């Protein structure tokens, strides 16, 4: 199936791209939504501008769409972006990195239903710890770019997701109820390298 990827440059959308390709789908484009609202309910905002560089590393075209990030209204912008991808790249489906967020998954599914294309969520309902281990075992180099939860201070910024990270996040999960994979917005990530990239992304994270 010809797929477009809802792509933020973080671990979830990048790993979903990896899985979709592994399952035999044809990845024909990335779709990145640049939101002006840093607290968007739908879209990842930290380091979103780096998706253009990641697209080059994957040798994939990227469709960038701007949104003000207003709750619910931003869904129309997403629909418009997907419609453009259908016209320009003839996509038959969308892939997302959703793990457990019913809010995001249900809204994207509704858009795909209206546009009569498939919505594929290859990581849906994976166990969070098993998922983090999958990333490591699949040679994904991922760093934290933003934190927004009790227990996650600035020392976590730029930290790589490795075995020690997993052990530490388990502790915070028990103490504060933090989603280990950060899907509740507890932390945001950036993929610096993975099997999809021709070389590592060189960037300085502030």
Explain what the structure shows.
The protein has 206 residues and is an alpha/beta fold. It contains 6 helices and 7 strands. Strand 2 (26-35), helix 2 and strand 3 form a beta-alpha-beta unit. Helix 3 packs across helix 4. The protein is globular and about 45 Å long. The chain starts with a strand and ends in a 13-residue tail after the last strand.
Which percent bin holds the helix content?
A: 25-40%
Major sheet: arrangement of strands: 3-2-1-4-5
- Could you please say which CATH topology of the largest domain applies here? Rossmann fold
Strand-residue proportion: 15-25%
Main beta-sheet strand count, sense and barrel state? 5 strands, parallel
CATH architecture of the largest domain: 3-Layer(aba) Sandwich
**Could you give the order of the helices and strands?**
EHEHEHEHEHEHE
Point out poorly predicted stretches.
Answer: none
Please tell me the overall pLDDT.
92
Summarize this, please?
With 206 residues, this protein is α/β, with parallel strands linked by helices. The chain has helices spanning 11-22, 51-58, 73-89, 102-115, 128-137, 163-176; strands at 2-6, 26-35, 62-67, 93-95, 118-120, 141-147, 187-193. A five-stranded parallel β-sheet has the order 3-2-1-4-5, sandwiched between helices.
